[in-house]
Amino acid sequence: MSSHPGCRRSPVADGDRVPGRRHNLVTVLRQRGFRRLLAGRLAAQLADGLFQAGLAGSVLFNPEQAASPLAIAAAFAVILLPYSLIGPYLGVFLDRWSRRTVIVLANLLRAVLAIPVIALIWTGAQGIPFLFMTLLVIGLGRLFLAAVSAALPHVVEDRQLVTANAFANTLGSIVFSAGLGGVALLVLLGLPATFHGYASVAVLAPLGYALSAAVTRWSYNPTELGPDVRHRHSTTLRGAVAEVGRQTANGFRHLARRPPALYPLAAQSVHRVFYGVLALAVTLRYRYAFAEDGDLGGSVSGIGGAFVTGGIGILVAALITPAIARRIGGRRWITLLLAVTGVVVATFGLPASSTLLPIAVGWVALASQGTKIVVDTALQHECADEYRGRAFSINDTLFNLCFVVGTYAGALAMPDTGRAPAVMTAVALGYAAVTVWFAVVSGRVSRAARAVIPAARETLRPCMPAAPHESRWASAR
Questions:
Q1: Which residue from 282, 336, 317, 11 is spatially nearest to 160, judged by alpha carbons?
Q2: What is the pLDDT of residue 340?
Q3: CA–CA distance, 249 with 255 (Å, rounded to integer)
Q4: Which residues of the chain have pLDDT under 50?
């Protein structure tokens, strides 16, 4: 639902101050297509929370299983990297095939494949078959989310993308966290922290995947979620596979020519490296340092509390990001989030106490979600529809790859307790450096856009809207 390509207006995510009319949540929720896409997403992400809680619990918080920092980092790599490396290639198919079909089939396959994985959790068998099927389930989940993000501009208008992203991404994260936190609560209430206990809650996940597939299948026709018919390709599947490399390279070049999307994506990628370090530190603190007399039930409940504060941070980000992005601009909001995160890591992360750590978790979750909302909206609006699937697959690849790099870097530098003041100091300084870099390069783009608009106004006057805010990146003071 984008405007004429020659008259495209930059989104809130890319720009600075814009007017706030008709960007409210009520307007977005009136869109039936958005509500149904959201319902399918929430069902799948709740299932993800239950499934991944079963996986994580059986590996990390299980008295029958020991986990070193490198083993935890390796687990993240095995789960996340395979899809991350082929993600841009799959994005080519998101731009060729019906996204409704991709969403439905991905969830149906997950519903089927999750069943043997859960059976293997129950038996404690964590060999090659377990790893392979786990990779498939989680990889299909990443494909599902990329397809949903690429489909969103087909169910809401461009001017509503910030609010729609904020609400959908945040509610999805909260529902996912609810699945994780629900399992932690059950362990606190008496669910055995064993292979059998974790498998018994993960068994609900296939139902959520099947429900998500059904909602999407019966809510849209095959072409309704894109890609646009005029962007479909007529080549055979063999021809499509042959041109995957070239098309993926085109996707990278398409992004490289769009600084308002490229720079926020780069800033988020660096943030994800630091986020991986912090996530590993938090996991180790709760797994070993905060466990009283080896009580893993207490560790699970403690990290469950951290998930609660993280969920609160995510919710706050959803509530405030659209309004702040419209008032000060997406680039300034990202700059502020990165700067404050560095201060929070130094203030609350360095002591690494069970009292202060949840505060740091809450803020980092807020910053991550706020940044993600801005980045997703930038990609949705700046990238043409025929490249949008590739853009989101590239985004997803960087999102996971950078996180894994961070966990490995942390594993090489941290003891088993997760307490490493030098590492936390380096992370805080890293946030300071990326804040300065992003402020400089995004400001340069803003100034360049302001310089171009007066000349472009005369050329594009016949198709320009009446509102004076032609460029939302360029409207900065």
A1: 11
A2: 98
A3: 10
A4: 1-22, 455-477
Phi, psi angle pair for 203, to nearest 5°: -65, -15
262 touches 255 (CB < 8 A): yes
Identify the CATH number of the domain in which residue 399 sits.
Answer: 1.20.1250.20
How many structural domains does the chain have?
1
259-284 and 357-382 are packed helices; what angle lies between their axes, rounded to 10 degrees?
Answer: 160
Helix 195-202 to helix 99-123 angle (10° resolution) is 160
Is 185 within the bounds of a domain?
yes
Query: Among candidates 24, 213, 15, which has minimal Cα distance to 114?
Result: 213
CA–CA separation, 410 and 70 (whole Å): 9
Q: What is the domain range of residue 375?
A: 5-12+20-463
**Percentage of the chain exceeding pLDDT 90:** 44
Tell me the pTM: 0.73
From the list 375, 361, 390, 166, the residue with the least C-alpha distance to 269 is 375
Is the residue at 293 inside a domain?
yes
CA distances in angstroms from 66 to 61, 135, 190, 338, listed in the order given: 8, 21, 21, 34
**Is residue 470 in some structural domain?**
no
pLDDT on residue 6: 39
Closest-CA residue to 89 (of 226, 213, 252): 252
- Identify the burial level of 462 via C-beta atoms within 10 angstroms of its C-beta, where 0-12 means exposed, 13-18 middle and 19 or more buried: exposed
416 found inside a domain: yes
Pick from 310, 317, 327, 435: nearest CA to 367: 317
Q: Using N-to-C axis directions, what is the helix angle for 296-328 and 259-284, rounded to 10°?
A: 160
Give 369-395 pLDDT, tens digit per residue.
Answer: 999 999 999 998 888 888 888 888 889
The pLDDT of residue 460: 40
User: What tokens were used for 361?
Assistant: 């978790």
